Amino acid sequence: KLEKMFPFTVGANIGTTVTGILSALAGSNIATGMTVALSHLLFNLTGTLIWFVIPFMRRVPVSLAKLNGNLAADLKWFPIAYLSTVFGLLPLVFFLLSLAGVAVVASIGTLLILALSAAAVILTLRMKKPDVLPESLKADPRWMPNSLKVVPDTDAESGESTRMSSADLNAGAWWQGTWAWGSGWFVLLFLLMGVPNCQWGNIKYTPEDGRDHIGVGAWASCSSSFKEEVLFISPVSCNATELTACSADFLSTCSEASFAEEDEDDAMEVYIEGWHTCKSSCSRDQWLTSCRASPCAGSSHGDFCDSMEASTADRYPFKYGTAGDVAWTAGEACRPNDAICNNGASLANAGNLAVVGIVAAFAGEFLLLAYVFLDGTRDMKMCLFGAAGSFAACWLFLLSSFGVFASALGADAECKVMDASGTGAVIATGKFGDIIEDGGSFSYNFLIYSWLLTMVILAAIIHRIVTVRTKVEPVEEFVP
User: Fold this and answer.
1) Looking at residue 28, what is its pLDDT?
2) Counting beta carbons within 10 angstroms of the beta carbon of residue 409, is it exposed (0 to 12), middle (13 to 18) or buried (19 or more)?
3) Which of 152, 246, 256, 420 could bond 278 through an S-S bridge, CB–CB 3.0 to 4.6 Å?
4) Could you give the CA distance from residue 451 to residue 190 in angstroms, rounded to a whole number?
5) Average pLDDT over all residues of the chain
């Protein structure tokens, strides 16, 4: 029963906060992460103390759950409307109000809370003590759901109230439909997160390297380095005097006897700082040669220099542009791909195909939900066929998008990137999949997950179509 499930729900509500605490402990800023995680925990604990510990207060959430269940039984569209309003529309409204200022939020928010409170009081009195209400508030209009009526309709055969009924969308019908339309929401969620995101690929660098990452999407590339004007440079080089001058602080620190006892991470920071001091005037090879020749204390000196060599190495070959020419002008952090790489058309084609896949997924989900909600009240077979066709189109366009993107990964490309010196730009060359990290990034994986899920949806819909088409209608027996 619902009353027996309530403690489990409350316990699960508290248990989910553990994941936030574990994530905070694994983050780089533990103090801020733990503040958020503990706030989440305390919020849920406070709710438990209010709604569970005090016995008579338990009736409120349990009664609301029963009411929502009855409304879902009367109105098949209610669950989606409820979720969309509570978790989508209301947060959006309050966010927009917050942009207008505290006074607007306080005034309109107060009116909204008072209106909801008045509605809750009236509904409670209609169901518990309708006699105290005036006749106008006790009326049962035809459009009102049966579960909200003062005098609910009765079943014609049994004479019992029909206020309580099943809220299962597929009760006694197509149980796989829940899997189908539920997977459809995940397909849409993954596509809406992945397609517009400029994380289809990443040109990443290590913290030791110091350069800003570049995120590459279907239509644009984004990086903090794009905010300032950057020119193409010629190879960076320095003479022995300049190398000795920029390495002076590094040599002074690492040659002290106490440096051998330094913590490994702290010692590595000294080498990183030494490289960053010299990289604008000396080449990476010159600095590494100097590093290995430096009389630094400790037996791990060579290992630190090797680590710096590995962490500052480019994964891709590169060439120099015309020194002094503008690689990119100062402006927005996100630029059209054509302004950064020469394969922008291929990436845009992959993105455009994915957009068509999103449109097809929306159409398929709409038709599928229409079939689930209305099947049994009218002939909805065409919606089922339409859903199958839409999700098949989504599957095909996502597969095409993947094929175009995979071709772009294997094709030669050139992209403007910052030089290791940090003083200007160079041109990365080679296979595009070698220029970006790991041949693609997490955002494009969302498209692959969506493509896989569409196969689950198609399997369920096709199974339903076959079942409906082969279903034999019962024949009434002739009685003479």
Assistant:
1) 63
2) buried
3) 246
4) 10
5) 84
In this prediction, residue 478 carries a pLDDT of 45
pLDDT at 171 over 60: no
pLDDT in tens, 327-379: 999 999 999 999 999 999 999 999 999 999 999 999 999 999 888 877 767 78
- Is a pLDDT exceeding 60 seen at residue 288? yes
Residue 27: HSE in the Cβ half-sphere, 13 Å Cα cutoff: 15
Contact indicator for 63, 2 with CB cutoff of 8 Å? no
What distance in Å separates the CA atoms of residue 412 and residue 423, rounded to the nearest whole number? 26
Is the Cβ–Cβ distance between 408 and 200 less than 8 Å? no
Q: Which residue has the tokens 């015309």?
A: 322
Task: Please choose, from the candidates 398, 401, 404, the residue with its C-alpha nearest in 3D space to the C-alpha of residue 343.
Answer: 404
Matching residue, tokens 């005090």 = 54
Q: Which helix (H) or strand (E) holds 117?
A: helix 102-128
* CA quadruple 87, 88, 90, 91: dihedral sign: positive
- Give the C-alpha separation, 149 to 62, whole Å: 19
Place of tokens 């997977």: 183
Measured in whole angstroms, the distance separating CA 279 from the mean position of its chain's CA atoms is: 37
| pLDDT bracket for residue 157 (50, 70, 90) | low
DSSP reduced 3-state for 27? coil
**Dist. CA 69–CA 79, nearest whole Å:** 9
The answer to whether residues 158 and 415 touch, using CB atoms and an 8 Å cutoff, is no
Full-model pTM: 0.65
DSSP label at residue 297: S
pLDDT score recorded for residue 456: 92
Burial degree of 350 (CB within 10 A; 0-12, 13-18, 19+): buried
